[in-house]
Design brief:
alpha+beta, 6-stranded mixed beta sheet, 11 helices, 12 strands
Length: about 375
């Protein structure tokens, strides 16, 4: 009986050690450039899985053999930065009265062009109005193609409480980015990089007398079709060896291809961010990154910035909500002279494949 107990402990601790190494490897995968090693760079997608498995092992060992909990505890210490980014925990801070509220939302063509009337309001437009945000950055601003669908004029009319607005067409299809603001928009310009369907734009706003730059992003979308997502869900429901092997190869190939394109876009945004830092500008980078917090894209863009969700949010903050795919891919990043308060991903509105991310923002005081 004692031999069986020792053998069982040895097997479990070996598995635990293997999972701890994999968690560390996934945590440091954002340092792999997807343009050079596209498949390896996708390994960061697995971090939440290894995070949860190692957490379960800690709980298990605490009840049975406490000293073995050190395996996963050491892994968590080694991956502390990634753990903090993936699942932050913060105490509530009082929001300063001089703060402004920013909302970033991939609206999925305003819930696929549902018309907006007083009797039957478009759910996305209704939410945007109820949010009472001072600045709204929109991705996937796509209007309908006929009079029976939601048109740009309908959207402007519904958001008439925002006197300042700008729209940029991006890519080669009907996709667009928009900003609605209660503060004057001084200028707007697209950020040039190659993409068929995605893009970024830079705005300058006069916020209470200071010129603030906002960079609104919809970075390269992953190449997964509805059929690909169905294959993924089928793999989870019925994990047969051949099905998993073929499905994994297909999905990883498409993710790697998109990741390599996104890496080039991230370098351009990062270079722009560095330029703004050097001249001491106040700026915000937000939008749909189409990549997780444990990724090259996120690491490259967020370097030297405050992540609003990490700074003032709680939990995983999942913002992409398609069945079977749950990730935080929407972000609000701030220059170091700004502070975020009460950042949240609002999962109460389910009319897009994304949840909106919003927070209050104020200038940092000397005490901070």
């Amino acid at each position: 009986m004692k031999f069986i107990s020792h053998f069982f402990t040895f097997m479990l601790s070996t598995i635990n050690l293997f999972l701890a190494i994999l968690m560390a490897a996934s945590a440091f995968s954002p340092y792999i450039d997807p343009t050079k090693h596209p498949v390896l760079a996708c390994f960061g997608l697995t971090f939440p899985v290894f995070f949860l498995l190692n957490l379960l092992f800690i709980v298990f060992w605490i009840f049975f053999k406490k000293r073995y909990a050190l395996i996963s505890l050491l892994a968590f210490l080694a991956c502390g930065h990634a753990v903090r980014i993936c699942c932050p925990l913060n105490m509530h801070k009082e929001t300063p009265p001089e703060s402004f509220k920013l909302l970033s939302y991939n609206v999925m063509a305003f819930a696929n062009d549902i018309k907006h009337t007083q009797e039957s309001p478009n759910p996305v437009l209704a939410y945007l109005l109820e949010s009472d945000a001072d600045i709204i950055c929109i991705q996937e601003f796509i209007e309908g193609s006929n009079k029976y669908q939601l048109r740009k004029a309908d959207i402007h009319k519904a958001l008439k409480d925002y006197p300042y607005r700008t729209y940029q067409h991006i890519g080669t299809n009907t996709n667009g980015l928009a900003c609605y603001s209660r503060f004057p928009i001084l200028s707007q310009q697209p950020i040039p990089y190659e993409s068929l369907y995605n893009g970024s734009a830079m705005y300058q706003l006069n916020i209470n007398g200071d010129t603030v730059v906002i960079i609104n992003n919809h970075l390269e979308s992953n190449k997964l079709t509805i059929q690909d997502k169905k294959i993924y869900v089928d793999m989870i429901k019925d994990p047969k060896k051949e099905k998993v092997k073929e499905g994994t190869r297909l999905i990883i190939s498409k993710l790697a291809q998109a990741g390599a394109i996104r890496a080039q876009q991230a370098k351009i945004i990062s270079h722009l961010s560095d330029s703004l830092k050097q001249i001491g500008r106040t700026f915000i980078i937000c939008g749909d990154f189409n990549d997780t917090p444990i990724s090259y894209t996120y690491r490259k863009i967020s370097e030297g910035l405050n992540d609003a969700f990490v700074q003032s949010g709680n939990g995983m903050g999942i913002s992409y909500n398609q069945k079977g795919f749950y990730f935080r891919i929407d972000n609000i990043l701030l220059s170091k002279n700004l502070e975020a308060y009460h950042c949240e991903v609002n999962n109460s509105i389910k009319d897009s494949d994304h949840y909106p991310i919003l927070c209050h923002i104020a200038y940092r005081t000397n005490e901070q």
